[in-house]
Prior knowledge:
It is a single chain. By secondary structure, the chain is an alpha/beta fold. It has a single domain (15-254), classed as NAD(P)-binding Rossmann-like Domain (Rossmann fold, 3-Layer(aba) Sandwich), CATH 3.40.50.720. It has helices spanning 24-35, 47-59, 64-67, 78-92, 116-145, 165-185, 212-217, 227-237, and strands spanning 15-18, 39-44, 68-72, 97-100, 147-152, 189-196, 249-252. It has a seven-stranded parallel sheet with strand order 3-2-1-4-5-6-7, sandwiched between helices. Strand 4 (97-100), helix 5 and strand 5 form a beta-alpha-beta unit. The longest helix is centred in the middle third of the chain and has 30 residues, at 116-145. The mean pLDDT is 93. It holds the Pfam family adh_short_C2. It comes from Pseudonocardia eucalypti.
Amino acid sequence: MTALTQDLSDLSGRAALVTGASRGIGYAIAAELLARGASVTITARKPDELAESVRALAADQADGDARVLGIPGNAGDEGSREETVAEVMRKFGRLDILVNNAGVNPVYGALMEADLGAVRKVFDINVVAGLGFLQLAHKAWMGEHGGSVVNLSSTAALRSTGVIGAYAAAKAALVRLTEELAWQLGPGIRVNAVAPAVVKTKFATALYEGREEQVANAYPMKRLGSPEDVARLVGFLVSDAASWITGETVRVDGGILATGSLG
Length: 263
């Protein structure tokens, strides 16, 4: 029986990969995992922005230079994914935690007017890329040694929005993918998802800019989410404190779905 006083949140000795993590939710997740003791690799498309994020993450930890790695790349590119996982293994010799955070949403408005090329990109980055990263992580380390995966979904996956339908459908597919993978990969690998509502990031600006108070008032908690709200949940899910949780999609939404709407 595990003692209740044991620190099950400690991630020391483990290596994590967080995609799309140069800012916003991904950056906050990387910082959370570092604070819990993990070594962390982050990816992003823009090298300069990524390098600055790596410097900032390392500066917050006494041994940060040894535990933070940044790899520029596009999550939607198969070669880039392969090189990323290979670099993680070269640097840290292991890959225990995968957080599929990279996402795009170039499609707004009526789906009958949507460009199908853009819709394909939404599914490719938000769903296929995550599976691709996990296949590589499984081959490189997790298949033999186990690990934990968290996929970043959205409350839009759970309730119709009317304006971001392609994104919502892709995130709903990610929820189903999470459940399928949890079944197929247990007991050695746990796979969960988190579903944030509107979080104050550059990615979500269009959903609240110029009317933040109005949007926030629809939430029982009367505020929008912060990247740290999501990061703390992810930190829990990848830790041993969540060792019997897999296949779940956990809402972190300030109570908005409890009201019957998305605001």
